[in-house]
Structure formats: structure tokens, C-alpha cells
Amino acid sequence: MAYIIHILTLVGIYSIMVMGFNLSAGMAGLMNLSHMTFAAIGGYTSAILTSRYDLNWILAFVAGILVAILSSFIWSVLAARMEGDQFALISLMIGIVVYIIALNWKELTRGALGIAGLQRPDFASSMEQYALLVWLCVVVCYGFVQKIEHSPFGRALTAIRDDSIAARVLGKNVAMLRVKTLMISAGIAGSAGVLFAHYIQFLQPRSLYLETLIILLAALVIGGLGSTKGAIAGVFIMFLIAEPLRFLPIPDAIVGALRLMIYALLMIIVILKKPRGLFGKIAFDV
Q: Rounded CA gap, 7 and 172, in Å?
């Protein structure tokens, strides 16, 4: 039972991350390959504030979201005017730079040693309570993203995704709308990062790095770009397919690599056979 609760908790946390990723990539057409970086920033913010300054968990949770949003604003103002592959490459570079900083700024992050002994909030100290907290956040996030999708702001994002030049001609401030989207997306990622760090009770630079990006991309491809429910479905499917590997007579050192290979294979199959994924509104052609 504990294992099932553990998996459900991770599915919930990754679902929040993918919903934020879908907001920028699916709704606004911004393939932000540094999305997991803002989850890490949120997680580190909360980890540092709670472990070193004994800050209340709720305040640290809010601080993690705000720092992730601020960090996103700093770079998105410069990158929001870029299109397609240019934006994707710049965003990936940002993620790599932040990873290197986290790995080498040992006074702040403890580098590869990581920050251990993170505490869960008093009101969700057990695995069952924390799982409920995570899924409450999933419900809130789902409602929030759905609200955005059906708002004038969401419709403007769709217009920009489909044809940014036409949106500019119609008087839309494309750069500003993109900046706002990336900030909201980063805030969602930051909340997931805080939940992840305090659930695992340990955080180091590799915790939310390239492997996380592969998971996010695979879930988005499988679930479908532009679909909030597809984001959650994609995460569920990935865990259902990959988790049974733990019970096979395979060395632990191979399981991680094999899981990534399965994710890559799933992405290739879906892109070739069903480009829109399960619930996607647009084909994955990035």
C-alpha cells in the first residue's frame, strides 16, 4: 500500500509540472526546455528557507513559487521575442547554466552533496496526508489552468501559438503575453518543485534536471499538446509502463537507463502514429 501511495504522490507532483509545461508549450507554443529548472529553483528556495532559517512550510512554499516566477521574468523578457527552435535552444541553455550554478555554488546549495533532512509540513507529515496535499494541489492547479484556457488571455495565447504574426497585426502584445505565460508556468513548476523536495526530503542538482525534462516531454507528447487532462493522463501512462521494471530481475544500474529508453521509444511511436497524442489539440511538430 505504501508503494502505491508513493507512486500516486509522484504522479501528482509530475502532473502539476506537466500542466505548467503544457501551459507554455501547448497553449502558447513556447517549448520551454528549462521548465524543470524553475521546479528546481522553487524546491531549492523552500529547502534553504526551511532547513537553514526554520521558516514555516507554507511561507516557504509561497516563497518557492515567487522566486521561480521572478527567475522566469528575468530571462523571459529577453527570450520572449524569439520563435520556435531559437527559443527552445535558449531555454535549454538557461537550464544548463542554472544546473552548473547549483552544482558549484556549494555555500548555497551544498553542490552534489545536496540538502538533506527536509521536513514535511506538520499537517501532512505522513505519506497518506502528503499524498492528499499533493492531489489537492493537482485539483487546484487543474482548475487554475482550465480557467486560463477558457479566458480571453488563454484565447490570446492560442492565437499567438497558431500565428504570432497575425496576432501582432490584430494588436496583441505578443512579447508581453509570452512573458506572462512563462511566469505563470514557472510558478506552477516552482510549486511542484517544493512538493517534490519536501516529499523526497532531499534535493541536489540532478534531482530535477535532464531526466525530469525527458519525463515532462514524454508525458506531454503522449497526453497531447494543449490538453490539460492529457498532461495528467500522460504522466499516469508513463508511470504505469515504466514502474513494473522495478520488479523485473534487472540490475538497478540498468533500470534508470532502460526507463529513459522506454520514454524515448514511446515519444517516437506517438509522434509517428498519433502526432496529437491522446487528447492533444495540435500535432507535435517541434
A: 42
Instruction: Find the DSSP H helices in the chain.
Output: 2-22, 35-53, 57-79, 84-104, 106-109, 127-149, 152-162, 164-169, 174-200, 210-223, 228-242, 252-273
Find, among 31, 22, 32, 36, the residue nearest to 278 by Cα.
22
Look at residue 5 in the predicted model and tell me its pLDDT. Answer: 94
pTM exceeds cut of 0.85: yes
> In this predicted model, what pLDDT tens digit does every residue of 214-250 receive, in sequence order?
889 999 999 988 889 999 999 999 888 888 877 777 7
> b/e map of 64-92 (b: 16 or more CB within 10 Å)?
bbebbbebbeebbeebbebeeeebbebbb
Give the residue among 46, 189, 186, 48 at the shortest CA–CA distance from 105.
Answer: 48
